[in-house]
Amino acid sequence: MADTVAGASPDPHASGEDPNRRDFIHIAAGVAAVGLVGGLAWPFIDQMNPAGDTLALASIEVDISKVVEGQQIVVKWRGKPLFVRYRTAKEIEAAIKDDHADLRDPQTDESRHKPGKAQYLILIGVCTHLGCVPTFGGGDYGGWLCPCHGSVYDTSGRIRRGPAPLNLAVPDYSFLSDTKVKVG
Amino acid sequence: MSGHSTYEPKTGLERWLDSRLPIIRFANDTIVTFPTPKNLNYWWTFGGVLSLMLGLQIVTGIILAMHYVPHVDYAFNSIQRIKRDVNYGWLIQGMHANGASMFFLAVYIHMFRNLYYGSYKAPREVLWILGCVIYLLMMATAFFGYVLPWGQMSFHGAVVITNLIGALPIIGPSITTWLWGGFAVDDPTLNRFFSLHYLLPFMIAGVVALHVWALHVPGNNNPTGVNVKSKEDTVPFHPYYTVKDGFAISVFLIMYAVFVFYLPDALGDAANYIQANPLQTPQHIVPEWYLLPFYAILRAVPNKLMGVLLMFGAIGTLFVLPWLDTSKVRSMRYRPTMRLYYFIFILACLVLGYCGAHAPDDMVIPGVAGPQFLDANLNSIVWLSRIAALFYFVYFWVITPLMGLTETPLPEPESISTPVLSHPASAPAGATASPEKRG
Ligand code: HEM
Q1: Which domains does chain B have, with CATH numbers?
Q2: How far, in Å, is the centroid of ligand 1 from the Cα of B97?
């Protein structure tokens, strides 16, 4: 019945409940439209992710021969500060002593530097609370003190007091030579 | 807006909203129940195409602005970075650059449609003038946009066009300096052009809203040019024209996609792949294809000021067209002589475009040493542009007013429905029996 009058019926709903050619074309058109919009949406969203050249610049080499014992240098890596700290024997000792203290984010000092390179502590200099840059040497533990909300880090960069939830992050890095480090 | 609302809020929420902000009623009246002449052909689908293209240009443009750097030292490279490094930047940049061409293609079809079917005549003059405003804004937007990649053609195109203003007596030079923000087209110019290029599309969108408003008061014209006389002459916009527009848009998008994916640089100029160099002009300065006819008119005149005035006059003429046309008959279907001039007019526009793309001294017919006439060889692009430009103005200022007074039009149908019903081949019975055999 639907077939014989299909061309004559101007009423789009006249053909009843059965799945028929009209339903098929509705669904097909709808799917095509959704596919098109979806297919365009992803490129439009993904364009905001880091671009090829941004990713290509994502690793840097740092010459650490300039860092003086007891001091740190700050270099920019992926737009953020990177702390390279040359720790004194006393500072290392203090860090190891606290390995089993009551830590909020328990980690041993050893796990936070490369084997045999305990003097070099390399950290992302971003407070894990809300992203400020902690001040070198501040706080009761001789590590860092965040000026924004008072988070205190020890000489291993572990959180000891204040609102920050985690230790200062250790980035991926490796020693290319005794004086050169590749970060990222 | 107008009095024909048939919207009835169904749920409580819709009723609540309808008495506060009748936005669903508005959408319903504009794109669902709007009574539309039942005989609109595919030339009426380009308004929909244009709306879509405007939307796409705005979306892709906003994205490009996230990565583009409006500075003479970085602009060129930032576009290269978009094409190479930004995720899908090649797609978005390609859509935007080719989208401009598609937008103009659609707008030209839309405008020529209006000329043919007399859609600019009463009571649609305001609708037409708003269209002309949109067209002006589109050209300005395209010009500013073309400057942004800061290639050779961008830079020297900007130099040439801004110098046009300098042709105005007395105030010209100070206006040019004001436009530049310096002694030449430079960083301040690029910055303000970027700002304006971002602004104008939103102004276009605003004028489009007025345009559609002005459309919905008198309603659509139609291929017969005869007014809608009864309900029998119309069908609701949805589903009849949503589907027809949707189909046309799909076909248009396929053509657009062919350019974006297979010919992304076909419409661009090779010189624009060289970074702008203020110390050297490219061999041959040409605008984008959609501005070529006006460029040809500009160059056809040996006097700087006159050239500029004529070029703007060519656009200005469009604004007064509704009052130049004296014919009572809208559609050229019933004006056989005028129709002939109309097709010559299209030809003249194409010839002007052709002339705009060639150097003024180029020969029209290769190898024929034509005679010198006044200041140039007769067989040169200059003279061809002069003839075509002359026809452009004569068409609007002489032929259009005179024809309306002198021609004998063919009889117009009683109503939109009569030609359909009286035509034996398209009578409903035949349509039902074998619609596929009617070609
Ligand atoms: C962004 C550009 C534009 C958009 C989005 C747009 C949109 C529309 C839409 C949706 C319609 C109704 C459907 C149709 O007839 O195709 C329409 C009709 C019309 N437009 Fe445009 N338009 C644009 C540019 C122009 C320009 C540049 C002109 C003239 C210079 C113009 C003159 C008209 C006229 C006279 C009508 C009425 C046609 C009729 O009812 O027969 N429009 N426009």
Answers
A1: 10-285 (1.20.810.10), 288-409 (1.10.287.980)
A2: 22
For residue B439, the model assigns a pLDDT of: 37
Higher pLDDT, B284 or A148: A148
Q: Check whether B177 has a pLDDT greater than 50.
A: yes
In the DSSP assignment, the letter for residue B363 is B
Residue located via tokens 């079809």: B109
Q: Which residue has the tokens 């990177």?
A: A82
The predicted pLDDT at position B2 comes to: 45
pLDDT(A10) > 80: no
Q: How far is Cα B244 from Cα B250, in angstroms, rounded to an integer?
A: 10
Query: Does ligand 1 come within 6 angstroms of the Cβ of B204?
Result: yes
To test the ligand 1 pocket, which listed residue (B129, B134, B213, B319) has its Cβ within 8 A of the most ligand atoms? Answer: B134
Q: What integer pLDDT is reported at residue A98 of this predicted model?
A: 94
* Catalytic annotation, residues of A: 149
The helix (H) or strand (E) run that includes residue A74 is strand A72-77
In A, minimum Cα distance to B243 occurs at A29
Mean pLDDT of chain A: 89
B306 pLDDT above the threshold of 60:
yes
Per DSSP, the three-state class of A136 is strand
The rounded distance, in Å, linking the Cα atoms of B76 and B33 is 49
Q: Is B36 in the pocket of ligand 1 (CB under 6 A)?
A: no
> How big is the A-B interface in CB pairs under 8 Å?
43
Four-point Cα dihedral B156, B158, B164, B169, nearest 10: -110
Tens-place pLDDT, residues B385-399? 999 999 999 999 999
CA dihedral A69, A75, A80, A83 (to 10 degrees): -10
Q: Which of B67, B87, B428 sits opposite A46 (nearest CB)?
A: B87
* Strand residues in A92-155 grouped as ranges (E): 120-124, 135-136, 144-145, 152-153
Tell which residue, B83, B97, B86, B113, has the closest CA to residue B53.
B97
Digit-coded pLDDT (tens) for B113-139: 999 999 999 999 999 999 999 999 999
Return the amino acid letter for B274: I
Residue B239: cis peptide before it, omega within 30 degrees of 0 = yes
DSSP B133: H
Nearest to B63 among A8, A47, A52 (CB): A47
Nearest to A123 by CA among A109, A140, A104, A106: A109
CA distances, A18 to each of A23, A30, A114 (Å): 9, 18, 71
B416 CB neighbour count, 10 Å cutoff: 23
Is residue B248 predicted with pLDDT exceeding 80? yes
B89-117 vs B46-67: helix crossing angle, rounded to 10: 150
Mean pLDDT of B2-15: 82
* Residue B247: how many other CB atoms lie within 10 Å: 13
Top pLDDT among B418 and B347 is at B347
Task: For residues B109 and B117, give the distance between their C-alpha atoms in angstroms, rounded to a whole number.
Answer: 12
- Cα(B321)–Cα(B114) distance, integer angstroms: 11
pTM of the model: 0.87
Please determine, for residue B217, whether its predicted confidence score (pLDDT) is greater than 50: yes
